């Protein structure tokens, strides 16, 4: 249902953009397309951001592995206490003591399961939020580069020709003449900017 709504909204937006582009073209304005995903992947900050995210993911995985190992240790204690509480070779007092221990271990296990689940959800959200912030920051910088190019080349409108990540949603540009594509020019600008920064 959500994908259908999203696809419908995107389709309407594309139709509006195409209608507007006809009007803009009729007025003698220049239109271009750029593959934002391609230039984002070529942008040096994207690579460093991915490394940071991979490092954070690795730290989260280590944390989860430690929690799972603690749970395994607790499960073994629970199992051992449970077996002793049922073993008639032990005195009644020892069996009762182990029954109480097993109950305590069981409560600890339930709490630990909940903690593991909550921590995993929190870490996924933290990683997703950080990825979104990094992406927004990079897109803002790339838009400034595209804007500068467009101002120098008297281009009034730029559409993104990259395929959307959503999967089923239609592309925002169904067709464009290759002459309208400024992706290579933007990649060249990014390369020059990277050389200047070094």
Structural account:
Helix 2 runs parallel beside helix 5 and helix 3 packs antiparallel against helix 4. The chain is built from 5 helices and 2 strands. About 3% of the residues have low confidence. A two-stranded parallel ribbon has the order 1-2. The chain starts with a helix and ends with a helix. It is mainly α. It has a single domain, classed as 2-Layer Sandwich (Protein Binding, DinI Protein, Chain A), CATH 3.30.910.20.
CATH topology annotation = Protein Binding, DinI Protein, Chain A
- Major sheet characteristics: 2 strands, parallel
Quick one: overall form? rod-shaped
**Spatial extent as radius of gyration:** 29 Å
* Low-confidence regions: 22-26
CATH superfamily: Skp domain
Strand percentage: 5-15%
Count of DSSP strands: 2
Helix vs. strand class: mainly alpha
Per CATH, the class reads: Alpha Beta
Number of helices: 5
Distance between the termini: 48 Å
Q: Tally the structural domains.
A: 1
> Which H/E pattern describes the elements?
HEHHHEH
Reported CATH architecture: 2-Layer Sandwich
Q: Summarize the amount of helix as a percent range.
A: over 70%
In short:
76% of the residues lie in helices and 6% in strands. With 198 residues, the protein is mainly alpha-helical.
